[in-house]
Specification:
Layout lengths: L1 H7 L3 H34 L10 E3 H8 L4 H10 E4 L6 H10 L8 E4 L4 H23 L2 H11 L11 H12 L6
Helix pairs in contact: 4-6
Length: 181
Amino acid sequence: MLKLARFFKPYLVLILSILALLLIQAMCDLALPDYMSRIVNNGIQQSGIVDVAPEVLRESEMDKILLFMSADDANKVKDSYDLLDKSALNADDYAALSEKYPALEKERLYQRNTEDRDTVDALNVVMSRAMLAVAGIESMDPAELMQMMQQQGWCTRAGHDAGAGERRRFRHTQNAPAGKA
């Protein structure tokens, strides 16, 4: 083996560069599945949305979300967001932020103030439940929502009966002459 080493000596740089390139190729081949899974998971399935906790959201939406959180979770969320208000910002900050977030001209916004991965992951868990509840309620038919609230004992309006109109209409069609329903 030592006798062969003297023949390899002039080509040592080329041999080391070949080994380095093979190592780089192997690392790239092993990283490719991870890149593809990120493209599919975040890029296609989630439409490019990586985190549940939005970078910016309207004050009205934040108020809705906070309704469905415990006091501790709500405090964590409030600590992780800064309120952007037209009157509280100086002219330069307002100009830059209103260009980036045009809704700031009409209403107050909350902007996430942390990029710490652990904090954002905790916000994702807390906010996902609350955002799911808000979306579910907003997508419900008002009559169904009132019925659900009554069944759960959440309805605070005394004597209100969400299904009364339906029952009245049903009785009216039952008592109507044939062909007049």
